[in-house]
Design brief:
The protein is of the alpha/beta class. The protein has helices at residues 11-22, 44-50, 52-76, 90-100, 123-131, and strands at residues 2-6, 32-39, 81-87, 105-109, 136-139. Helix 1 runs parallel beside helix 3 (52-76). 31% of the residues are buried.
């Protein structure tokens, strides 16, 4: 099974990765795991003032921080994975990437770092559920 794991470094995304590692047998003998981190874009003027190279380094560093715990959990269990980075609205980009990549499952935490305003379900998770035709497993 090809699985897209959306991770942002939050405790909920770590819980989603832990769920995957703890229940690996549910996902087939050797699931193909892709870790996706979506960075919200910097405001246009800030990005223009900083320049493309600085913005790219910033996005790379923030993605590395966000995926660190997930990568460590997967490596500890010997699960191979591929890292992906996208810039845009997290909920929209996860749903689009899931469709384009022909994934069998999207796995993500119920809330992320930007989900303080939503009590029941984080905004990115809600957007993924609303806009994604790929089955999604949301872990709390």
């Amino acid at each position: 099974m090809k699985i897209l794991v959306a991770a942002d470094g939050s405790k909920y995304s770590r819980a989603a990765v832990k769920y995957l590692t703890d229940h690996l047998d549910m996902f087939g003998t050797k699931p193909e795991v892709h870790l996706l981190h979506v960075r919200p874009p910097l405001p246009g003027r800030a990005a223009a003032a900083l320049g493309r190279g600085v913005v790219q380094r910033y996005n790379d560093e923030e993605t590395e921080k966000a995926l660190r715990a997930a990568k460590r959990l997967l490596q500890k269990k010997g699960i191979a994975f591929r890292e992906l980075q996208v810039v845009g609205d997290p909920g929209e980009q996860i749903a689009k990437h899931a469709a384009r990549g022909r994934y069998g499952l999207v796995l993500m935490g119920s809330h992320g770092h930007g989900a303080l305003g939503s009590l029941v379900l984080g905004s990115a998770a809600a957007k993924v559920l609303a806009g994604c035709k790929v089955p999604a497993l949301i872990v709390r």
